[in-house]
Amino acid sequence: MKRLFLAAASVSVAASFSGCSCIQEIGGAYFPAWLLSILIGWALSLIVRLVLIKVGIDGWIRPRSIGYPFLTVFFTLIIYLIFFTH
Question: What does the pLDDT look like over 37-52, one tens digit per residue?
Answer without folding.
Answer: 999 999 999 999 999 9
